[in-house]
Design brief:
Blueprint: H1 2-25, H2 31-34, E1 39-46, E2 60-66, H3 74-81, E3 85-87, E4 98-104, E5 110-112, E6 114-120, E7 129-134, E8 147-149, E9 154-156, E10 159-161
Parallel strand pairs: 1-9, 1-10
Antiparallel strand pairs: 1-4, 2-3, 2-6, 5-8, 6-7
């Protein structure tokens, strides 16, 4: 019985050593191999630079990609909760000339019909949002462009925010 246990211990030890050698020889579990980045990235430029920013309250500033364009304020939160919207993980810098952003898209490929720079300008998370720019490759913000984010792919979108000429808002 002791020989069997000793033999099993050697087998287990050998398996552990082989598994460790295999992991080391493969470079470990690289997160980029397990889940490559898919998303949208680019730059937001502000017409008039840092001096053009409004002086009133700015609570949050993000890039948000909606699968369906919201038509009522409550659809923003619903889209986030239902994961039919993707948004930049951190608030973007404010009162700057420009800033780079990265928006990771989970479970690609995904299609977004409405991609915007959104600013929360009051304390009410549900209602105090302004769309500062809308992705519209044809130049008409009333006709937002569709964005398809492929698996392991990056879409480049740059925004141009003009505080004196905001795009049409999706809801009153």
């Amino acid at each position: 019985m002791i020989r069997i246990l000793a033999s099993m211990s050697r087998v287990h030890a050998m398996l552990i050593v082989m598994a460790a050698a295999l992991i080391v020889s493969c470079g470990g579990l690289d997160p980029e191999i397990v889940r490559p980045f898919s998303g949208i990235r680019g730059t937001v430029r502000y017409v008039g630079g840092a001096a053009a920013w409004p002086t009133d309250s700015i609570y949050d500033l993000r890039i948000v990609a909606f699968e369906k364009k919201p038509t009522e304020p409550n659809q923003v939160l619903t889209s986030i909760v239902n994961q039919t919207a993707a948004y930049s993980p951190n608030t973007l810098p404010v009162r700057v000339d420009s800033s780079a952003y990265v928006l990771e898209v989970l479970l690609p490929p995904r299609t977004f019909e409405y991609v915007v720079v959104a600013m929360q300008n009051g304390p009410d998370f549900l209602n105090d949002w302004l769309m500062l720019d809308v992705y519209a490759p044809n130049g008409n913000p009333e006709e937002p462009g569709r964005v398809i984010v492929p698996s392991a792919g990056t879409i480049a979108i740059d925004f141009r925010v003009d505080f004196d000429n905001l795009p049409p808002q999706p809801f009153p």
